[in-house]
Amino acid sequence: MQTELSRQLGAEHAIFGFTPFPAVAAALTRAGGFGVLGAVRYGAADDLKRDLDWLEAHTDGLPYGLDVVMPAQKVEGVTEDEIEAMIPEEHRQYVRDILAAHDVPELPEGERSGWRITGWMESVARSQLDVAFDYPVKLLANALGSPPPDVVERAHRGGIPVAALAGSPRHAERHKEAGIDIVVAQGYEAGGHTGEIASMVLTPEVVRAVDPLPVLCAGGIGSGEQLAAALALGAQGAWLGSVWLTTTEADLGSRALTRKLLAAGPGDTVRSRALTGKPARLLRTAWTDAWEAGEGRPGPLPMPLQGLLVAEANSRIQRWEVEPLLGTPVGQIVGSMDSERSVQAVVDDLTRGFDRALARLNAIADRH
Question: What integer pLDDT is reported at residue 114 of this predicted model?
Answer without folding.
Answer: 56
